[in-house]
Amino acid sequence: MNKASVVIIGGGIIGTSIAYHLCKNGITDIVLLEKDYLSAGSTGRCGGGIRQQWSERANVRLAMRSVELFQKYSEEIGLDIEYYQGGYLLLAFTDEGVELFESNVKLQQEEGLDVKLLTKKEIAEKFSFINTSGVKAAAFCSSDGHANPHLATMGYAKAAENLGANIMTRTKAIGIDVINNKIQGVNTDKGYIKTGLVINAAGGYSHEVGQMAGVDLPTESYRHQIFVTEPVEHIMDPLVISFENNFYIRQTKAGNFVMGQSDDDEKPSHNENPGWRFLIEMTTKMPKFFPFLKQMRVLRHWAGLYNMSPDALPIIDKSTTISDFYYAVGFSGHGFMLAPAVGEAMAEWIAYGKTRKVDISNLNIKRFAKGVTREKNVV
Ligand SMILES: Cc1cc2nc3c(=O)[nH]c(=O)nc-3n(C[C@H](O)[C@H](O)[C@H](O)COP(=O)(O)OP(=O)(O)OC[C@H]3O[C@@H](n4cnc5c(N)ncnc54)[C@H](O)[C@@H]3O)c2cc1C
What we know:
Helix content is about 30%, strand content about 25%. With about 375 residues, it is of the alpha/beta class. The protein folds into 2 domains: about 180 residues, FAD/NAD(P)-binding domain; about 140 residues, D-Amino Acid Oxidase, Chain A, domain 2 (2-Layer Sandwich), CATH 3.30.9. The strands form 4 sheets. An 8-stranded mixed β-sheet has the order 5-6-4-14-15-16-13-17. The chain has a 6-stranded mixed β-sheet with strand order 8-2-1-12-19-18, with helices on both faces. β14 and β15 form a beta hairpin. α2 packs across α8. The site of flavin-adenine dinucleotide (FAD) has 40 residues, from α1, β13, β17 and α8.
């Protein structure tokens, strides 16, 4: 393939969702470049959590639209992605935490989300697998859930291919050819592709791909680690998360528990090597909150990248200097759950000049010049 109307750089959930939604909107002359295999980046390393409970309205809206699309996914794409709406339980351990959840729930309810606060007693009755000592309250949304990120990526890629897109794995973009601020093509390690429009969906490498076009995106990547236990019978419906105690945990369809935390000592890097400290900290901490974990063995431990923007909200925009250079980057720890709505919005913007279902204008890059309010609901 040596020419295309659109070249997408990145074969994670964002790139493949954009590819699928472009095809759905009639733009099928697409090449998607993935330097490794599909979902080899953050997507295939992520927790698979899908929640709508955010402190920033833009995230709530994108997540709510994404849930509508996840609900239709298996019927529309024809693939079971292990989507399970078991809810998300956000635990608060301090008065400040409770206050934050009260104001978040108000904002989320204004957006039409069915979310509520639970008392300690209600938490203990409903979720007996949690040690509630120290818990003050929780926020709960039953339509939150999780899905398998590999399957979701493969499904979008296959559906895009069926509609005419060309998915090129093991093909690395090594340069973007720009003359007089107009894109001419993309250089890859397998040859040149002539195109006038490029979308940067390169996840942890979004900054580097931006630089290929001379665009300096304010994103940087940080290692995040995660592990999975052996499988047991199903006991945990919701994904449980604590911002104050820095953890999230969920049970997969097969019965394994997947869990992680963030690490304030991480420096920006592309390091994807797991480390011992994480494993020791997590295996010491988690059984205190979930006593049943004491009996369980860890099967596998890995790491991936959070591609961070200055406010932990995505940047979905196009360059003002290089024409038709679009980007959907900086997804922090929530790009998987936002991907269906982001792909749809990006495709509508390119196909019709404006989005139809969800407004992404406040996720533009100009916002950083005004100062930012950081998303608070992050691990
Ligand atoms: C441990 C961990 C847990 C997480 N948990 C969750 C969660 O529960 N829920 C959630 O919503 N999000 C979660 N996230 C975040 C989520 O994984 C990301 O936000 C999301 O996967 C971003 O998708 P993406 O397609 O932008 O990036 P990626 O999946 O990284 O895809 C980008 C792709 O671009 C490719 N690429 C890069 N440079 C080039 C190039 N030059 N040429 C060709 N290809 C290139 C890469 O190989 C990669 O495959 C988690 C992340 C981590 C690390």
